[in-house]
Amino acid sequence: MFRVVITGGPATGKTSLINALSNSGYSTFNEAARKIIQQQLTLKTNKVPWDNILGFSKLVLAEQIKDFKSANSDLVFYDRGIPDIIGYINHGQQKIFDHLKSSNKNNRYDHVFILPPWEDIYKTDNERRENFKEAKLICNEIEKAYIESGYNPIKVPVESVNNRIKFILKKLSE
């Protein structure tokens, strides 16, 4: 099995890319964090990134591990990976918890593609509340978390979804 992470800061086109890959027949997993935020807002808890980053991160980690273990295809694309949690926690200047450290070590991906901040497509919504400046800082922390976790993230050019997919598939075939 080949596990590929599509990552980057908020609003860089990750979800559009994952959706296009899924529509093209590839096995994909949607972003766990957005799903958890929606659940927690509905439940009216404080386990959202802007109120309780550690409680929120533990829920996201559980969902990501579930996705990691349930993958059953030769090639799988993930909208964010476990090191993203480390990046967000570091951005929030919190302490990385032990279960996250061990999960990051034991659940490894084969390739990581990082989408850079793209101001032209940036917008906030109910789950994404950061401004563009903060989104760039988060992206830097995410990239740093992947590098410190032993990955070599490949930067994806700021282009159309189709061109980004072509770029990623070409890199995977090299």
Summarize the structure in words.
- This protein is α/β, with parallel strands linked by helices.
- It has one domain (2-173): P-loop containing nucleotide triphosphate hydrolases (Rossmann fold, 3-Layer(aba) Sandwich).
- It has 7 helices and 5 strands.
- Helix 6 (132-148) links the parallel strand 4 and strand 5.
- Helix 3 runs antiparallel to helix 4 (82-91).
- The longest helix has 18 residues, at 53-70.
- The protein is globular and about 40 Å long.
- The mean pLDDT is 93.
Short synopsis of the structure:
By secondary structure, the protein is α/β, with parallel strands linked by helices.
Strand order of the largest sheet: 2-3-1-4-5
What is the structural class?
Answer: alpha/beta
Given the structure, what is the number of helices? 7
Largest sheet: 5 strands, parallel
CATH architecture: 3-Layer(aba) Sandwich
Order of helices and strands: EHEHHEHHEHEH
Radius of gyration equals 15 Å
Which topology does CATH recognise?
Rossmann fold
CATH superfamily: P-loop containing nucleotide triphosphate hydrolases
Q: How many structurally independent domains?
A: 1
Q: In total, how many beta strands?
A: 5
Overall residue-averaged pLDDT value: 93
Helix content: 40-55%
Bulk shape: globular
What is the beta-strand fraction?
5-15%
CATH class group: Alpha Beta
Ends apart, CA distance between termini:
17 Å
